[in-house]
Amino acid sequence: MAIATPPTPAAEARVERLEVMWQSRPGVLGWLMTTDHKRIGLLYFWTTLVLFGAGGIEAMLMRTQLIKPNNDLVSPETYDQLFTLHGLTMIFFFIIPMTTGAFGNYLIPLMIGARDMAFPRMNALSYWIFLASAIFLYTSLALGMAPNAGWFDYVPLANKTFTPGHNIDFYALAVIFNSIASTLTAGQFIVTILKSRAPGMSFNRMPLFCFAFLAASFGLLFALPPLSADNIFLFLDRNVGTHFFDPSHGGAALLWQHLFWIFGHPEVYILIVPAFGIATSIIPAFTQRKLVAFPLVAIAELLVVFIGFGVWAHHMFATGMSTTALIFFAGATSMVVIPSTIQVFAWCMSFVLGVARFKTPLLFIAGFIFMFVTGGLTGIMFVAIPFDQQVTDTYFIIAHFHYIIFGAAVFPIFGGMYYWFPKVTGKLYFERPGQISFWLIFAGTNLLFFPMHLVGLLGMPRRVYTYPGNLGWTTYNVIETIGGYLTLVGILVLFGNLVWSYLRAPAAGPDPWHGPTLEWVTSSPPPEYDFAVIPKVSSAYPNWDVEDREEDRRKLASGVLLLDQGHEQVEVTPVDGWLSRTVEMPHESPWPVLLALCLSLVFVMLLLQHFAIAGLMGILSLLTLLGWHSKEPQEA
Amino acid sequence: MSGYIASSVERPSKPAAWWGMVILISSEATLFGAFIGTYFYLRFRAPTWPPDGIPEPRVVVPLILVGVLLLSSIPMQLASNAARAGRLAATRLFVVAALVLQAGYFAYEVHDFSDQLKTFDISRDAYSSIYYVLLGADHAHVALGILFNLWLLAKLVRGLTTYRVHATQAIAWYWHAVNLLTLVVILTLLSAAIG
Asked: Which segment of A11-20, A313-322, B47-56, B157-166 scores lowest on mean pLDDT?
């Protein structure tokens, strides 16, 4: 739909009316008060990129420290903080907010033909809370009190006796604070995907990207509360004197691990399922064919997360649980293979049956499949309980989950950055440096992570700040560090290319890839109202349905499904996608950022153990909510 | 909404606000699931439950109180129905009736909570820790519901709008969920009196 050149004067007038109605305030205030999903997506993008940089610097410091035996670049205490922050940052402050916050926010409304999320102000709130929690966590580093008990923070090491400083209090509160943001995002996506799709987009016509984000959102919704409960207990144990994790008073140290991994394993799928969604968007565009086994892949995406809730104790095979429990969890874990393999075969067959154009995004997806299969193969090995007990807490584990988390989650993120770069910026990217960046990152990560398998089998434990020179580990560590720097160079080439492309590359037009989904229907970058006409949908590949797009143009001329009477959006029936009603959407609001501010004060006061003042700030937050709801959407 | 398609049939469905409340309830119920799971995890590892020196929880009074709270679901649902039918006076009346039951329950429970804290402290052992956290979290949800209802009454002073009808529906659902949660929490805590 060429919005730049509307077909008739009547249509032109309608588009102008939409422009006025959806316009945002100029300047900084416009960004602070924004409820536009695209702006919020971009805010998430830039923030998580900064945090990715922080997590990356932490990783490079660790790799540099380990380049030779008995190195003393960083002290053991600093090293503890580095690996803890690296894990926390990359998981909670990079991958989750990058996939859900940035990609999901920007793309889901565009893919389902909506003008915004179902709850736009709540969407803004989730960003501001996320930002505040990130600042909260990194304040600890500035104060020299960063969390230092590993990202999974086991008690008793994490209790007051063994870690008396504020380090772990920062951990517990930052994780709870961050969980609020993720829960809001998850709920937001579920309701948006169920209720805000373009009429005609029944469940079986929904892009696989949306199935993946639906699965990840359900995962977040049900996985985060156990984590919050766990951290509430930890905070109370440390600051109020309860005994949840204290065996001398009837508590149980293993309770921490159970609750943590009930969150922690679904978490792994929460990290990679959105990446599957990105892969299933890129593959059809660059093979120019429908994805093989669409319904099976959709079910597999949901099933991976569902099974993910029943396998948590495979992280605890070395804790002395009963044999029955071990065998149950080993069995459950091996089931994950089924939905994962269905997807891998579907992707590979799409490559084979279509005409693959190996441009940079597809290269990253091919790399992702390679890394995912490699990491999956070492994953299956852990089902063999004795083997798992042998390699627990060695570099073999590190190798496995970096193949999964870097290989299977971050590769598609990079691929997605290239794929949607023309949509977000309106510019193409330069292909040659793009391909170079892929090969550098691919070679770098394999050099970085593959030798970790070997050095892990040789017995090198994780989380050691240095090692003696006579154990045969040195060569492997040197290769790993070289791989680390190579990866860094690749990432710098990637971002350098994107910046350079933004400045110099030719314009992309609305649809440079002949992509299958609705985001390619609208202009690049999309207008504030996303679509001038709510698009007609009659298949899962709407941008390839030429007649429907013709129909959109006719509707624009005749004023059907235009919603130009107010700041409006459609609601549909959740499964069949029948039109149900139009609703008035809230516009810019100062309350989300104010509420996030009040909540930050609650968390700061809890940290300082001023519980009464924290309560007062809680009341202040409630008052903010009162202000938030003082104006009804119809009155706005 | 005028000028909007006449050609297409609009089918009724639950509003996004209702789905939002379902999401909130799912998240809170999962949190309580983790708390209750913790309760039984700790219980099955303990030689005696409650530990020696802590009195068994009373059974009759809490059950009667929960009954009172559960009754408040009826006026809440009636308020929701009245709001949908556009009956303003009835809506207000039913919300006030529910509020009386809820506030009565809450006042007694807060009083009882502070009494119990005098007999055994939260930092005594694992039993007291999970006992007070579980009960306190439940009371906090009741308190939040009371605030919801007060806010709703204040909104209803100036009549009914679509927004307020949806709010009444969503808050009624919140109360059904909290009442059910309270029943489960109280039964969990009372289980210490059995065996």
From this structure: A11-20
